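Archive entry. Fields below.
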Amino acid sequence: MPVSHDALTVREYQGIQQVVGPLIFVDKIHNVGYNELVEIRCPDGEERLGVVLESKEGAAVIQVFEGTTNLSLSETSVRFRGEPLKLPVTRDMLGRVFDGLGRPTDGGPNPISDKRRDVNGQPVNPTARLYPTKFIQTGISAIDGMNTLVRGQKLPVFSGSGLPHNKVAAQIVRQAKIVDEDVSFAIVFAAMGVKHDVARYFVRNFEETGVLENVVMFLSLADAPSVERLITPRTALTMAEYLAFEENMHVLVILTDMTNYCEALREISTIRGEIPSRKGYPGYLYSDLASLYERAGMVEGSTGSITQVPILTMPNDDISHPVPDLTGYITEGQIVLERELSQRGVYPPIAGLPSLSRLMKDGIGPGMTREDHAHIASQLFAAYAKVKDVRALASVIGEEELTPLDHTYLKFGEAFEKDFLSQNETEDRSIEQTLDLGWKVISLLPKEELARVTDEEIGKFYGQ
Amino acid sequence: MYDVIGHVSRVLGPVVHASGVKRAKMLELVEVGEDRLIGEIVRLDGDAVTIQVYEDTTGLAPGSAVYGSGMPLSVELGPGLIGSIYDGVQRPLEAIKAQAGVFIPRGMRAAPLNRERKWLFTPSVQKGDKVQPGQVLGTVQETERILHKVLVPPMVSGKIKSIQSESEYTIQDTICILESENDEIPLTLLQRWPVRRPRPIQERLASNIPLITGQRVIDTLFPVAKGGTVAVPGGFGTGKTMVQHQIAKWSDADVVVYIGCGERGNEMTNVLNEFPKLVDPRTGRPLMERTVMIANTSNMPVAAREASIYTGITIAEYYRDQGYHVAIMADSTSRWAEALRELSGRMEEMPAEEGFPAYLPTLLAEFYERAGMVNTLNGEQGSITIIGAVSPPGGDFSEPVTQHTKRFIRAFWALDRDLANARHYPAISWLDSYSEYIDDVSGWWQEQGDHNWAELRSVMMDLLQKEERLQQVVKLVGADVLPDTQRLILEVCTMFKNTFLQQSAFDKIDTYSTVEKQVKMLKIIVTFYQMGLAAIQQGATLIKVRRLKVVHDIIRMKFSIANDESDKLDALQDRLEREMKRLGDIYASFA
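PREDICTED_STRUCTURE:
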């Protein structure tokens, strides 16, 4: 990776004092900065990268991204680069594949650029942000109709192992578009600790839809050292920021799987003997995740945008687990996949109630989607909540004992799941189709039950 | 002012150790390294100190110089605060954007208050007057609605040696010279106050005036008094931020301090976009003219997040001292507590529950106790109401921050996951929430709203409790087996939830309800229950009651009747009574 060689800031030392897991301890050194990039030369000449996690007088703790296998105490040398890890960025990187640290793995040449960006990024000034309001049509009814994605939003997919989150993400990538604009999204894809098959699935998908030349991939797969996962989303987002804010492109970022990232963070934290908070995760997990998720949005002075779709698997399907929990506190909503729906053969199994898009209210309505959108969505949520109550009641007293109205709700619930939620993997529904379908299923309920839509809307759309 | 007092010996993220330090004070403001990163001394140990640095410490190396300021971390107070947006240590984000562009680089510096802008100062004291701390020296019209009172700083008193005449001054111009016992004190429009020290007051008062928020579930069911403290806990997606935004928009506070502490950047952008456009229904002026914002978003340095709460409350106290009612929204106090935990962990302190430091409850108590209705040093009444959001992990209210906060607040608006899932907003649970201010403020409500307010409220609360018990039965055997009198309770509670408790923040009319509209709506629903019950007891069926023509209009009254059309609510009330009476009469004639 090309880096400037400034003799004043680069310092090299022979020998290290201690190796613990992915960490090495070096002493008798001088003037080493916090978070500084370190090159480690192994006894066999192999070069590895690391960063300074802690620096004190004459000593430093270094985290080695590629792991510490093969390192010896006396024959290893470390070079401090005098600057944090930087990624050279250029438009030519579109269509290429890199490892988690930004080194090409597709056999192509190193990207050449005089623009090098600190992978840690800098916080965006809140006064310089532009509020996202542009509706992205994903062609998936459960998202467009009820949890609308807008350009510049960060909307994660909360999944579980075995659920089709990759399919859903791939479908979003394939179908995402702005209805009245003819610009396609550039895609930045970061894989942290996922299996080769998963990476291959995405590559094939990008190929089949012919978007591969618009994709930059950063792959740190399951067999790569876990520490590399800590830097992968940062290099990916650095790339995304360059494309969006300097090249004015609309960028869709897929980060998968954030749970693996958090696990790597916990691993390092534990080795360092830090005080854990919940489930052994470090107390700064929230801040750390925020430093990734907040690198989305739109800013003044640029026409580009970053839309983030992180994917995470909820351990044991538990949404209150620290990883989904803290993610939900930072991101602007969440798309939750539900095992029960999936097992009943509903695809995409997007849970009706716990899913949410916080920016939806600003991206829908007249001029953006349709005037009835907010009301019909709210009505579908309310009615589906009632369905859940009725089903719970039915499982206690039996369906026969239900009132006629409750039966109608059950019928609505089935239609909602079968006709509205369910769709084919290749089915790309327009927003009008989605809303009309919403009205079609809600029309199974009597008008008096519809308190969240207006009389005019009922007149116009009910039973049409 | 800034001398080298020592050198960095160890860097651990935002926590920096320095050694060889002389003359350092606890909580002294320092600058670290070449980039002059701002920090605060949080521990002294011989000639070693621990510094909490408010900026990213990447590249900071042992051996770098530490510069002392001799002062504690302070905020600048004076005209120009209103309408500004600051980070956690009061750096003006607009000015930083002008200097650095979209991103916030390290070591940025800008004066919190504009040094060039001139303000028209009108003196209200004369040469030779003896003045006491907190007394008004003169005034500046800061915005159309805020008359900024320039006060004699706390701890300062004496005789006016000279005072400037009415004219325009910058905040650094001397406007007055005070002669005290042994020296002369020049005073400017600009004053400073250390953030961690509460500003002095004359005395605390009991408060029996509610803070009207325009949100029906809050004002009617769980009111907060001016000078009160509230916690709003809720898992993600339950609407904490929306509740905070709605109160910041519609409450009848004179000044609002909004602290975005470790939350989303886009939320602050949203406030910045909306507030200048929204008009306060009471004064007809843009909401921005009463708002101060502190934005330390989740990706900004964690130590500054810890400071943001104190920066905000000190600004609030400054306006309270001018005799204003200030409401402060802290979103979210959990992020502040987590910042404490992170710093404490890096200082290798012994943790208490879930890694939080053992002094967490002490700090929470200190913060919430800075709220209150007071007599200011100048003898005026002012108040600070604190509304703190809490973000419990996993939505579990038994976690330490929620539990400790509960000890120091008097109103609790619990946000409920199930309500939020059904998109019932505000998702304030009527079963888990409470307010200890009800007795304090019911006098006000009886006077300003309806003389039966307390009665109407308790009828409704009672019905909601009964409904909860009935729902248990319904869950087991279905609603069909209940008698009509009990099904009426279910019916009325559904009506109350849909038409009264649920309030749309996005509807022009419904987003805010006046006191008058709230009490009239409440009365209509209680009347529906009471007369409906009477009709059923006379022999009418629930279906008949439900099918009254007026019901359709009651259900839509929140959207269809504007705040200034209370005569329409009176008409609705009359119609309801007439239709109910007619129904009752029909059955009475059979009897």
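CURATOR_NOTE: The longest helix of chain A spans residues 373-397.
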